[in-house]
C-alpha cells in the first residue's frame, strides 16, 4: 500500500473533548480505483478535495453505496472496531444491488487497519466519543447515458464524533409518514445507497417542522406495517415478546439490530422477527402491554422512543422514559465496544 502523509496535521485545531457529528475529518483517507475490470492498489493520501468530471455518472444517476462504522478507544488506550466484517458483508450486498464491483474483505480490513493506525491520535479518548468511519464507492464513468459504469472509486474517510445525545439518552418523538413511502419490496430499501436517503429528506423535514425527531416508516404497499426509522431499526417490547420487523428487502439489515437480536436471545428473551402493524402497537399500548419501543443504529446505539403519532392519534411509551431493556442493551453494547465487558460473540476487533 502506498502512503502519502500530510505535511501539516490539522489535529491541533480540533477539540477532541467537544465534538458533534460528521463535521470534522481526520488527516488521511484511503483511495482505490477500479478500471479495466479490476481494483488497483489502495493508497492512503491526505484528506482533501478530489477532482471529478461534471458528467460522472454517479452524480447524475446515483450508482453509489456507502457504509458507516466506528472505532472506539478503550481505557487502556487500545483501539477497537465493532463487527467490521459484518459492515463489510453489508457493503458487498449493497454493491451487488447497485452493480458495483465488490471490495474484498482482506483489502477492506487492511485498509482500515493502516488508515486508523496512521490517524490513531484522531480517535477520541472521551467515553461516548468515537471515530466514525465512512467507506463509500461511487461510479466514475464520464458519460451521461444510463448504464452500469465501467470505472469506480472506493474511498474511506474518517472523523472524530461526539456522543449522539449530548444531554444523555432522551426518548425520540416519531410520526408515521402519511402519503410518503421509503421503499417497496424489490426496490433499494435493503441497500445502503444515497437514493434511499434522498427519498426521506422531504418527509423528515416536514416531520421536524411539526416538532418530531424522525419519521417512522410503514411498508410501501399497505402502509400498515412498521418498518424502520430514518437511520435506525425498531424494536417493540410487547408483554414479554421483543418484536422487530423482518428483513424482507425493504429495510436496512442493521448491524446493531443483529447485535440486539443476539444479546436478547442470549439473555433468554423471546425475540420475534415478524410483521407488526401500527394498529397492533396502538392496541398493545391501550391494553398496557406495550412496555418499550426503541431504535437501534450505529450512531446512537440504542435510542428510546417516547411518542408515536399516527393519523391524528398518539401513544406515549413508558412515560416517555428509557426502559430497563433499552438501558441494559445500551450498556452491554457500549461496554463491549469500549473493551469494558467480555466479548462473548467475538465482535471486537483490535487495531
Ligand atoms: C435506514 C437505516 N436503517 C437502519 C440503520 C441502522 O443500521 P446499523 O445498526 O448497521 O447502523 C441505519 C444506519 O446505518 C440506516 O441508515
Structural summary, described in words:
This protein has 351 residues and is an alpha+beta fold. The protein is globular, with a radius of gyration of 21 Å. The chain is built from 7 helices and 19 strands. The strands form 2 sheets. Strands 1, 2, 3, 4, 5, 6, 7, 8, 9 and 19 form a 10-stranded mixed beta sheet that branches. It has a 6-stranded mixed β-barrel with strand order 10-11-12-13-16-17, surrounded by 4 helices. The protein is 24% helix and 29% strand. The model has no long low-confidence stretch (mean pLDDT 96).
Task: Describe the SSE topology.
Elements: E1 2-3, E2 28-35, E3 38-39, E4 43-46, H1 57-61, E5 64-66, E6 69-73, E7 79-82, H2 84-97, H3 105-118, E8 130-139, E9 152-161, E10 172-175, H4 194-209, E11 214-218, E12 226-229, E13 232-238, E14 241-244, H5 255-266, E15 270-273, H6 278-287, E16 290-297, E17 301-310, E18 313-316, H7 324-337, E19 348-350
Parallel strand pairs: 1-4, 10-11, 10-17, 14-15
Antiparallel strand pairs: 2-3, 2-4, 2-9, 5-8, 6-7, 6-8, 7-19, 8-9, 11-12, 12-13, 13-14, 13-16, 16-17, 17-18
The protein binds pyridoxal-5'-phosphate.
